[in-house]
Amino acid sequence: MAKVIEGLYYSESHEYVRVEGDYGYVGITDYAQHALGNVVYVDMPEVDDEVEAGEDFGAVESVKAASDLYSPVSGTVVEVNEALEDAPELINQDAFANWIIKVELSDKSELDNLMDAAAYEKFVANP
Predict the structure, then answer these.
(1) First vs last Cα of the chain: how many Å apart?
(2) DSSP annotation of 110
């Protein structure tokens, strides 16, 4: 079974947000990386790009498929995980340690629209 971590927020499109202060680290869940298979490329936005909750901000490509990434939160991209440019397979090794973008959150109330770990576990158990 896919790993789910307590204390994170989860979207129905299988992204997570780890909130630290006014910032959110956004990545794909362990469930998503298992479904994709071997990740070969991560398309990320630029620093200072604006992201909107529910809008796509990039893509993850695997040997099986390409999948758009949807931001679970709105805000400004303050950092991208440059390690993924040279080693996209890090997502397969540990999806939660290898976030994709760091966002300065513009509206923390959007987190209320996301699932907690227990709700996400139920969501992936009954696809």
Answers:
(1) 13
(2) G
CA dist., res. 124 & res. 23, Å (int): 26
Name the 3-class secondary structure at 9: strand
Q: Please say whether the dihedral angle defined by the alpha carbons of residues 65, 70, 71 and 76, taken in this order, is positive or negative.
A: positive
The predicted structure's pLDDT at residue 127: 66
Q: Strand, helix or coil at 36?
A: helix
DSSP E strand stretches across 2-120: 9-10, 15-20, 23-28, 39-43, 50-51, 56-62, 66-70, 75-80, 101-105
User: Tens digits of per-residue pLDDT, 17-66?
Assistant: 999 999 999 999 999 999 999 999 999 999 999 999 999 999 999 998 89
Phi-psi region of 14 (alpha: psi -120 to 50; beta: other; left: phi over 0): left
Q: Is the pTM of this model over 0.90?
A: yes
Using alpha carbons, select from 27, 10, 8 the residue that is nearest to residue 18. 8
